[in-house]
Every structure is written in structure tokens, then in C-alpha cells.
Design goal:
The protein has ten helices and 17 strands. The protein is α/β, with parallel strands linked by helices. It folds into two domains: about 5-155, Rossmann fold (3-Layer(aba) Sandwich); about 155-330 and about 350-375, Dihydrodipicolinate Reductase, domain 2 (2-Layer Sandwich). Helix 8 (about 205-220) crosses helix 10. The chain is globular and about 60 Å long.
Length: about 375
């Protein structure tokens, strides 16, 4: 038998432990062909992406929809042949049984609704963020564990083949010693709802969350954060409430220390003119760049919709494009991946500990912005994520 390093031993032990946890969860459908019954709450714009993806899954069965604007729940149920629809979460949870609660509501409601679903015995996939504070999110994880349930939080950026390529390129030493990275994501701000600009909304949990998940996934958990946040546009006009006062940051700059000398920076905001638009169609620019002593690497397109990775090194100074296929990953696949996981027992790359770490970074960035001080982090997650 070939000896293994301590690092390899810890990685194998962690993966084995995750497998044992899955096998021990009550109702976990390991290696079974039955479908995972799904209830979706929040039937606004995001559901128009999630529901068609879930409806095509061989492991998901859509059971119910729910929305406080009842017409939306009824309409989405009719469109995707979902047998039950409700105007309130209480009625949804009291209705026909389902296994996986998919939360697509306003971000301020995520923690409260996720807790209610866990108390009702449902596994949870939550759009970002899974809670409004790190302590609230950690309490949700503890509750899930105590009830032999699972909870996961978006985004699902670690699932893209471009992320996998970038992770392996770093680990294989192609870039030499990695020193720094930069990411940005912004547009002129959504107009369809006020919650983006209200307390506990903001550009960090809506936009920056993607880049924070990607950079920590590539470079490892952050140990500390320094940040500045601001409000550039103090009033907004939105479809559901008219003119409102902006309470949450619409502009943010976040510095992260990943240890071992590695630093990264994320900028995000709702005041960015982008000639490629919110969807980034036709974009050939890098939104994420990683630098090392032997090379540099740039992600083409947004990390939630990537379509290539450019790499230039000492050995090949002309940039080369890799993994140009944009079709194998979509941002709305998270709930479908989780349904597949619950049905087959395969542990997904998406990890709740990673989502919690990103949530703590967002909270720490706001604290640093208020105090002007560096904020140390306490959370972590299993890394590297792609072996």
C-alpha cells in the first residue's frame, strides 16, 4: 500500500464522514430511483428560471408552489403542471407532503422561512443568502443537524466546469505562487422590488455574494476582512412601492486575507453602467482575475454565467482559452443538484459551511465599513473544494 500524506488523509476522512452523515439522515434516499418531492415558495422572477429547470429533472417531482401574491403561485403551478398552490407557508407545509423546500422569496425572509421549513421536517435549498446574519445561519444549520435534515444555500458557482478548471489550475501550480485576485459584478440596480434596497438587502448579498463564493472557493476560506461600503443613490423608484429611501449599501469594496500571503478583492454595486447589460451577453472581459508568480488566469463572463477561462504563463505568454462551453452550467441549477443528491446519495460540491462563511464575510464587511477596522472571521469550510 502506498503511504498517503496527512493532507490526503484529512481529505479522505472528511469525505467519508460526509458520506456517513448522508447515510444516517432520516428519509435520505440513498441510491434509490424515487423522485424527491419539491415545494417552491416565492413565485416571482427567480422562479421563472428555477421551475423549468426542476421540471426537467429526473429526480425532482414538483408538488406545490406558494406566494403571498396568490395569483403568481397559481400561474406558476398552471404553467409547470404543479398540482398544489398556496398563498401562505403555513398552508403549504400543512398540505401534501414534500421532501425539499426551495426558498426563492425576498432575502429578508429567508432565515425565518427556512427555520419554519426545518421545523416542519423539510430539507432546505435557499436562494442567497440563507439567513440575514451568520448567527442566524449557524442556528439553522444546528437545527437541521439536530433534526437529521439538510440545508444548503446559493449560489452554486462551484458547480461550473470553469470553476473546476480554475481550481485545478491553481492546485497544479500552473500559476506559480498565487498572490492575489480581483472580482467585480455590478449593474444599475433592479427595479422590480424594493427589498434589494431595504434593510438587510444590498449589493453584497445580491451581487457580491457570487464573487465572494468563487474567490473563497478558489483561494480558500478568508481569515479576515476589511471593507468600505456606501450609498451612491439615496432614493430609488421601484415597481412595487414607488419612490423609496435606500437603506442598504449599493456600493461595496471588500478585501479578504486568505492566509499564506494571498489577498483578494471584490467590488460590487447597483450604480455600474455595463455596456453588456445585466445578463453580460457578448461579454469578452474578465470579471475574475487570479495572479501568480508564473502566470495569470481570467474568467470570461460572470461567474454565475461563465463561458471560458483565459490563461497566460511564462511558458505560454499568449493567453489561451479553456472550457469555452457555456451550456453545461446555469445559476438556477442549485435546487436540481440538491434534489439529485437527495435521490442518489451523492454529496454535492455545494456546502452549507461555504454559504455560511460567505454570509459571515458579508456581515464582517459591513462591520468593517462602519468601524474602519479589520474584522477577523471564525467560520471555515472544507477546502479545496475540487479535488
Amino acid at each position: 500500500m502506498n503511504p498517503i500524506s496527512r493532507h490526503e488523509f484529512l481529505q479522505r476522512t472528511a469525505m467519508a464522514g460526509a458520506g456517513l452523515l448522508l447515510a444516517s439522515i432520516e428519509g435520505f434516499a440513498v441510491a434509490q430511483s424515487k423522485k424527491i418531492r419539491v415545494g417552491v415558495i416565492g413565485c416571482g422572477s427567480v422562479s421563472t428560471q428555477y421551475l423549468p429547470h426542476l421540471s426537467r429533472s429526473s429526480h425532482a417531482e414538483l408538488v406545490s408552489t406558494c406566494d403571498v401574491i396568490y395569483e403568481r403561485a397559481k400561474q406558476q403551478a398552471a404553467t409547470y403542471n404543479v398540482p398544489h398552490h398556496y398563498p401562505h407557508i403555513d398552508a403549504m407545509l400543512a398540505g401534501p407532503a414534500f421532501d425539499l423546500f426551495v426558498n426563492l422569496t425576498d432575502m429578508q425572509e429567508h432565515g425565518r422561512l427556512n427555520r419554519q421549513a426545518l421545523l416542519a421536517g423539510r430539507h432546505v435549498w435557499s436562494e442567497k443568502p440563507m439567513a440575514n446574519t451568520y448567527s442566524e445561519g449557524k442556528a439553522l444549520l444546528d437545527l437541521a443537524t439536530s433534526r437529521r435534515l439538510r440545508i444548503w444555500g446559493a449560489p452554486a458557482v462551484v458547480n461550473s466546469p470553469q470553476f473546476a478548471f480554475m481550481s485545478r489550475t491553481i492546485r497544479e501550480g500552473t500559476l506559480g505562487n498565487v498572490s492575489s485576485a480581483h472580482a467585480h459584478y455590478g449593474h444599475l440596480g433592479p427595479t422590480w422590488s424594493a427589498f434589494f434596497y431595504e434593510k438587510d438587502g444590498g449589493s453584497l448579498p445580491d451581487l457580491g455574494v457570487y464573487n465572494l463564493a468563487t474567490l473563497t472557493g478558489l483561494l480558500g476560506p478568508a481569515t479576515s476582512v476589511m471593507a468600505m461600503t456606501s450609498i451612491v443613490t439615496p432614493e430609488r423608484t421601484v415597481d412595487n412601492k414607488g419612490t423609496i429611501k435606500v437603506e442598504a449599501e449599493d456600493n461595496a469594496m471588500v478585501l479578504m486575507n486568505h492566509g499564506h500571503g494571498v489577498l483578494s478583492h471584490v467590488q460590487c454595486g447597483f450604480n455600474y453602467f455595463d455596456p453588456y447589460g445585466h445578463e453580460g451577453k457578448g461579454q469578452e472581459k474578465h470579471t475574475i482575475t487570479v495572479w501568480g508568480t508564473h502566470g495569470t488566469m481570467g474568467l470570461v463572463g460572470y461567474d454565475w454565467a461563465p463561458f471560458g477561462v483565459d490563461v497566460a504563463t511564462h511558458a505560454h505568454e499568449t493567453p489561451q482559452r479553456f472550457v469555452p462551453d457555456p451550456r453545461s452550467y446555469v445559476w438556477q441549477q442549485g435546487a436540481t443538484v440538491i434534489a439529485d443528491s437527495l435521490a442518489t446519495g451523492a454529496e454535492p460540491l455545494i456546502a452549507v459551511e461555504h454559504a455560511l462563511h460567505v454570509l459571515e464575510i458579508i456581515e464582517a464587511a459591513r462591520e468593517s465599513g462602519r468601524s474602519g477596522k479589520r474584522v477577523n472571521l471564525r467560520s471555515t469550510f472544507r477546502w479545496p473544494m475540487v479535488m
